[in-house]
Design a protein that fits this description.
Length: 192
């Protein structure tokens, strides 16, 4: 099966739904604390999901059915690759929030193909949880405000620092569901 190349994007109707419905709803009802609370919840779920998995299960690449907000090429990731992607993309979000909070606009364009995993690393779990701890610390230490400065997401709209914190939750939620789908497929494989 040939998958689309990285950066091909989401189906147009899905992208427009997220851009014109999902993002505005979350902007209206979320606060910094709600976004952080829900993000911590997602990371806690990922911890439970990965706790009992073997190294082989973490690194085994399986093609899954496309799930909501997952690009086609990402359907062939292992769990380790999903976690690596969350660290790479999350690091970019973290630095963007920090810059926008100082009203500095990061100059580099954000490209989806630049945040794809490339290692399928054995030590990814520890790195994943350390990264999220550093993100929580940054958000806790940040002066909470909505920046005037914005940075465009490649698929959606311009986000300020607060919007990017909501995106951090949304992104982790989407990929937590991907991890669940991979685990489901791993279990199906065991039973065949």
């Amino acid at each position: 099966m040939k998958l689309q190349k990285p950066g091909s994007g989401l189906p147009n109707i899905e992208r427009l739904f997220i851009k014109n419905f999902f993002v505005p709803i979350l902007r209206t009802f979320f606060t910094w604390n709600i976004a952080l609370f829900l993000l911590k919840r997602e990371v806690s779920i990922i911890r439970k999901l990965t706790k009992e998995l073997s190294q082989n299960e973490l690194q085994k690449q399986i093609i899954i059915n496309r799930t909501f907000a997952i690009e086609d090429d990402s359907r062939q990731f292992s769990i380790s690759m999903v976690l690596e992607h969350l660290i790479i993309a999350g690091s970019l979000v973290k630095s963007t929030i920090e810059s926008l909070s100082k009203e500095n606009i990061p100059q580099d364009d954000i490209k989806i193909e630049d945040v794809k995993p490339f290692k399928n690393d054995k030590e990814i779990l520890e790195s994943f949880f350390k990264f999220y701890d550093s993100y929580y610390n940054m958000i806790n230490d940040l002066e909470k405000k909505q920046s005037i400065s914005t940075k465009k997401h490649p698929w959606f709209v311009n986000f300020n620092n607060f919007d990017w914190s909501i995106f951090m939750y949304m992104h982790t939620f989407i990929h937590r569901r991907q991890i669940q789908e991979i685990i489901l497929n791993l279990k199906k494989g065991k039973n065949e």
